[in-house]
Design a protein that fits this description.
Blueprint lengths: L18 E3 L6 E3 L9 E6 L5 H19 L3 E6 L3 H10 L6 E3 L4 H6 L8 H9 L1 E2 L9 E2 H12 L5 H10 L5 E5 L5 E6 L14 H11 L2
Helix pairs in contact: 1-7
Length: 216
C-alpha cells in the first residue's frame, strides 16, 4: 500500500507542534504542553463513525493509568467534527485526553495518510476479512464488519459522519511516542499489517514495553 504522501515521521525526527481544540474540556491542547514535562503517546484516529477507532480509543483509555504510572501521557487526535465528537464522548466517556482535527492537518503532518484509491485497494477492501476484537460471529469483509459493529453499538450516522467517510476513505491510523524534548521515538501504523490488520491496536503490554524501551 502506497500513500499519496509517503512522508511518515521516523524515530529521531522532531515532531511538528500543533494546537487543536480539546474534546474533553474547553480550550485547546498543544504538543508544546508536554515539552520538557513528559513523553506523550499520540494516537491518530479516523472519525468517530469508525467502529474500529472507537474501540481503539476505549482500549487506550483502559491503559492510560498504567502509562501514566510509567511516566507517559496520552493524547488521541480524532479526525471528526468537534461538536459531534464531544456529544459522542459525553455518552461514551474515555479517560484519554482528546483533540479534534476534522481537516486531518495533524494526521498529514505526522504522515498518517489517506491511500490512493486503486483497483488493488478496492479489491483488498472487498476481500480482506476481519474480526479484530472477536465480537462478530465470523470474520467479515471490512465494510460489512464496520456495519455490523455500528449496528451492535446502535451508532447512527449523522451528516458530518457521512461527509467524513467520503473525505477519509481509505485512511490509515497511527501511534507515535514523542519524548519530552519533542523527538519521535517510536512509530506504529495500522497499514503495517495491511488491510487485514484494520482495527488492530497495540496491546497494553506492547505499549508498556515500548515505553520502557524508549521513554525511560
Amino acid at each position: 500500500m502506497t500513500p499519496d504522501e509517503p512522508r511518515v515521521l521516523r524515530p529521531g525526527e522532531l515532531a511538528p507542534d500543533f494546537t487543536l481544540p480539546a474534546v474533553h474540556r474547553e480550550g485547546a491542547v498543544s504538543l508544546a504542553d508536554y515539552r520538557g514535562r513528559s513523553p506523550v503517546l499520540l494516537a491518530f484516529f479516523r472519525g468517530i463513525y469508525c467502529p474500529f477507532c472507537r474501540r481503539q480509543i476505549a482500549k487506550l483509555g483502559l491503559s492510560r493509568d498504567k502509562l501514566l504510572a510509567a511516566g507517559v501521557e496520552t493524547l488521541a487526535v480524532v479526525a471528526s467534527n468537534l461538536d459531534r465528537t464531544r456529544l459522542y464522548f459525553q455518552y461514551r466517556p474515555t479517560r484519554v485526553p482528546l483533540a479534534a482535527d476534522p481537516a486531518m492537518a495533524t494526521h498529514r503532518a505526522f504522515g498518517v495518510q489517506k491511500f490512493a484509491v486503486t483497483p488493488e485497494i478496492i479489491q483488498a477492501v472487498e476481500t480482506a476479512r476481519i474480526d479484530v476484537m472477536g465480537e462478530l460471529p465470523e470474520p467479515l469483509p471490512i465494510a460489512e464488519a464496520a456495519y455490523a459493529l455500528n449496528d451492535k453499538d446502535r451508532f447512527e450516522y449523522a451528516e458530518s459522519d457521512t461527509r467524513e467517510i467520503e473525505q477519509q476513505f481509505p485512511m490509515d491510523v497511527g501511534q507515535f511516542l514523542v519524548d519530552r524534548d519533542g523527538i519521535v521515538r517510536w512509530v506504529h501504523l495500522e497499514s503495517a499489517e495491511g488491510l487485514a490488520g484494520m482495527g488492530r491496536f497495540p496491546s497494553e503490554e506492547e505499549l508498556l514495553a515500548v515505553v520502557r524501551r524508549h521513554a525511560s
